[in-house]
Amino acid sequence: MNSESPTALVALVQWHSAEPNLDPKSYSIRPIDGKGMGIVARKPIASGKLILSERPLFTQPLLRGLPTILKALSPKTTTEKKQFLELTNCHVGSKHPFVGIFDSNAFPCGEKGVATKAGLFLQGARFNSSCVPNTNSFWNDEKGVMEFWAIRDIKKGEELCIWYNMGFDKRKDRVATLQRKFGFQCRCAACSLTGDELKASDDRRAALGELKDALALYGSHPAAGLKKAKLALRLCREEGLRQYIPDFSYDAFQFCAITSDLEHAKCWMRELHRAALRIKGKDGSKEYEVYLKDPTKHRAWGLGHKMTLEVDADVEVSGLEHSQDFEAWAEGDPEYPDIHEIQLITQARRRIIARWQVRNYARSLQYRAARLPKIGPDWTALRKLDASVALATLCERLALRISKEGWAISTESRPGTDMNSVKAYVIKPIDGKGVGAIATRPIKFGELVLSEQPLFAQSLLPIARLPTIMRNLAAKSELEKRQYLELANCHVGTKHPLLGIFDTNALPCGSTGGANTASEGAIFLEACRFNSSCVPNVNNSWNNASRVIEFWALRDIDEGEELCICYTKELQSRGARRNALRTEGVEASDNRRAILVRLLDEIGECGNRPTVGLKKAKLGLRLAKEEGLPYLNKDFSYDAFSFCVITSDLKHAKTWIREVQRVTAGIWGHETARQYDEYVQSPKRHRNWGLGQKMVLEGPDEAR
What we know:
The protein is an alpha+beta fold. It has five domains: 14-182, SET domain (Beta-clip-like, Beta Complex); 201-297, Serine Threonine Protein Phosphatase 5, Tetratricopeptide repeat; 323-406, no CATH class; 425-467 and 475-581, SET domain (Beta-clip-like, Beta Complex); 590-703, Serine Threonine Protein Phosphatase 5, Tetratricopeptide repeat (Alpha Horseshoe), CATH 1.25.40. Helix content is 36%, strand content 14%. A four-stranded mixed β-sheet has the order 13-14-22-19, with no helix packed on it. A three-stranded antiparallel β-sheet has the order 3-9-8, with helices on one face. It has a three-stranded antiparallel β-sheet with strand order 4-6-5, with helices on one face. A hairpin with a 4-residue loop joins β20 and β21.
């Protein structure tokens, strides 16, 4: 966000400071060799000090263009407009200068940590980037200001830098991303490393990225999870990425909460609170104060086995979890890497009765019974298995034994769903796929194919997932348990069978619905039988009002045709889709999908060029039809409607919004389509009505 053409020292606009008492001598804005303008400390700044608190010059919605920016900028003073024009523009030649300046310098801001708009900050825009930043930016929604906090001690004369490219990429990827997005070659301390130092830095960041993802899988292994959280904290400090310390400290706190370890939960929460204060201030750390006073108020409290963990980062932890129902493991290495567990539930008492531990460093698999009821000679006599037993299939085989001994396989329907009613499909075996849904009659576009209540739902938070799954299943009938065990498991050998089945089959749901805002995952015994296709003919949608998953026909479907949803992001390349699905055989045009991805990005930048934007929307509609992705029709039709709104084209705005509502009703149901009723009645109610030059565009009939 630096300036490419250094000018005289920019006069700061005092009105935009939310706290005039901030020491104006702590930093100065001045030219920096090779960077344009930047911010330099005029005196030592202590870690945790607020450097700048600034109100935005103006904000913009996520869908913005030249008309909206001009409207927001027009009432500003001449000095403010001059300062705006002095900011860098990374999009010279590709966007209007005003749009390019805003997009190059805007910060995301919004309510509750969700970016719903972008703001332009005249002083904040002068912070340059470093991949080892000494400053953190934080949007204080309560005060309506952007705050910049020192995240370590800063020396006099040192440049104050934030980080434009958050993440754990290696240097070559960071440099390429910053060059593409902001047009400069990063030469920060991390990107200037060479040789062994560079390799060590890249390795640390790669490890942090893996740990960030892996911690989500340790809800049922809190002791091992805590060990990984502590490793991540150590790597963050070594790499100088202090802004991530609160995140990993929160993971450690959650593991203590799961195990009811009050003493160490308090210790981790104090550490988390201190770290949050340093990078976000008092307002940014308020969300943790309730747990600082009483950790037992956390929703994960007590979800796992009670045990004592630890807080000292130098103490090694064991991967074993203890319970009074299990005999302790005798002898052996205190470290238990890559532990796999099998937990059995009796039909009578519905509690854990035995556990297996896989110790990869050993040459054998040891089993020890813990007051295990006699359910067969193979179960009670087993003490050791040869190491040649394939660990990848261990969990699957034991799960099958459970089903054979205790839970007979059944295909009967579960009470509470519409499985026994007359349906347009049947669940049956399909060559190479296991089972799937086959249409038993022609199904029309927009027809409701399935409406099903969940067997159970649970939070997507990575905390104590296995215990909560077991609790949910314990309350179900024997028939429902059998049906759950019949579902596919794509994580054999890597996760507990019950957890693997859930992760393989759970569909997203939540208070606002949709995969992007899902707060829960749920198991649907019938819906889980729908297989995947990258050209789906059925769309799944969570109806939060009715608490059901709904499957809607995306197009006319012939009798005998398999009904498929899409498990992946449809617009990925075929290679990426195949990698995600771990399957082959889907033929699709990567070129069309690549163009669709580009169109979705480009249309958002056409607010000041509505005729061009409408052409792109129409092209998107044609390509979506050719590629068999009708769900995109709603997005492109709504874009077309938006361009008609900007240009005050009432006639075509009405036809486009009716098309939006028609497509939405066909794919997501009439209840979802009602959100557009207001604009169908009067497109002029849209907040962007008349922001651009008045002109006549085209409607959907002319676009075909």
